[in-house]
């Protein structure tokens, strides 16, 4: 059965030693202004962005499009000013007081039936999507199919490593943008772009490098996934 789903692009910044945050999992603010502009560009090109609860808990906010030219482009393209911001979490144990819930965006929640209970009668999320596997985990593939039916064609995946790993394992990622930033964070438990159980080399997703940009001290790598064995 062919399952339709949005085209998915992961966008992450990492240290030169491959960490997306330090060992205390503080919000990753080590990218330059160029990296922030790059991220804003990717967000402006998306119909929706998806991130894990760990990412939301770390930042307390999400990045919105503020560049006037990007906003203009969205208007001309007949799109809402901001893409939809979708957070995924099984438990949905999020603090309703965080600034994310005041940001001028559409917020959707992708969760389990248990996770939905607290938020169902509250105003914070415009949509609550429950897609569960038989094991009570979130059925990300079914959720993406649903997003596609709602007109979400381009989906930016903004991390973190757990969400990216779960989607890579299911062959649900099409492209990656990785920014290599000039610092070393180290730390065995500091998060990386792909967490999860990991892949053995024979089974590892293979990438095609489609673009490399250097801006000052940062390198922007653009990959396409060519095969998940
Ligand atoms: N450098 C960068 O570009 C960048 C970008 C984003 C984040 N970060 C950093 O990354 C760290 C967070 O990464 P992370 O790996 O801990 O977190 P994450 O993937 O953002 O969040 C993990 C949590 O998200 C939910 N989740 C993720 N995948 C799921 C799935 N397939 N199904 C259901 N729920 C899922 C679960 O929430 P529940 O436990 O609530 O069920 C899980 O515990 C932070 O330190 C942040 O600063 C860096």
Describe the 3D structure:
- The protein has about 230 residues and is of the alpha/beta class.
- It has a single domain (about 5-225), classed as Dihydrofolate Reductase, subunit A (3-Layer(aba) Sandwich).
- Helices cover about 25% and strands about 25% of the residues.
- The protein has helices at about 35-45, 55-60, 70-75, 115-120, 140-150, 160-170; strands at about 5-15, 50, 85-90, 105-110, 125-130, 155, 175-180, 205-215, 220-225.
- A nine-stranded mixed sheet has the order 5-4-3-2-6-1-7-9-8.
- A hairpin with a 2-residue loop joins β8 (about 205-215) and β9 (about 220-225).
- NADP nicotinamide-adenine-dinucleotide phosphate binds next to β1, β2, α2 and α6.
- The site of NADP nicotinamide-adenine-dinucleotide phosphate has 30 residues, from β1, β2, α2 and α6.
Distance between the termini: 18 Å
- For the biggest β-sheet, the strand order reads 5-4-3-2-6-1-7-9-8
Count the domains: 1
Range of helix content: 10-25%
CATH superfamily: Dihydrofolate Reductase, subunit A
Largest sheet: 9 strands, mixed
CATH topology type: Dihydrofolate Reductase, subunit A
Overall radius of gyration: 17 Å
The top-level CATH class is Alpha Beta
Q: In terms of per-residue confidence, which ranges show pLDDT below 50 for 5 or more consecutive residues?
A: none
What is bound: which ligands?
Answer: NADP nicotinamide-adenine-dinucleotide phosphate
Shape: globular
Number of helices: 6
Number of strands: 9
Q: What percent of residues are in strands?
A: 25-35%
Mean pLDDT reading: 96
Q: From the coordinates shown, what is the CATH architecture?
A: 3-Layer(aba) Sandwich
Q: H/E series, N to C?
A: EHEHHEEHEHEHEEE
Would you tell me the structural class of the helices and strands?
A: alpha/beta
């Amino acid at each position: 059965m062919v399952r339709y789903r949005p085209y998915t692009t992961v966008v992450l910044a990492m240290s030169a030693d491959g960490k997306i945050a330090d060992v205390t999992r503080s919000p990753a603010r080590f990218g330059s202004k160029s990296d922030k502009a790059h991220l804003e560009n990717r967000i402006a090109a998306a119909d929706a962005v998806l991130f894990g609860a760990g990412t939301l808990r770390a930042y307390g906010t999400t990045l919105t499009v503020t560049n006037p030219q990007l906003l203009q482009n969205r208007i001309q393209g007949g799109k809402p000013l901001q893409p939809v911001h979708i957070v995924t979490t099984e438990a949905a144990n999020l603090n309703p007081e965080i600034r994310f819930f005041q940001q001028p965006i559409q917020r959707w929640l992708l969760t389990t039936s248990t996770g939905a209970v607290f938020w169902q009668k509250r105003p914070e999320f415009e949509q609550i999507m429950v897609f569960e596997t038989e094991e009570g985990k979130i059925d990300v593939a079914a959720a993406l199919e649903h997003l596609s039916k709602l007109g979400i064609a381009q989906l930016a995946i903004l991390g973190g490593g757990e969400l990216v790993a779960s989607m890579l394992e299911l062959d649900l990622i099409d492209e990656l943008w990785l920014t290599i930033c000039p610092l070393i964070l180290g730390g065995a438990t500091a998060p990386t772009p792909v967490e999860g159980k990991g892949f053995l080399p024979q089974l590892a997703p293979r990438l095609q490098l489609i673009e490399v940009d250097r801006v000052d001290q940062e390198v922007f790598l653009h990959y396409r996934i060519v095969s998940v064995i």
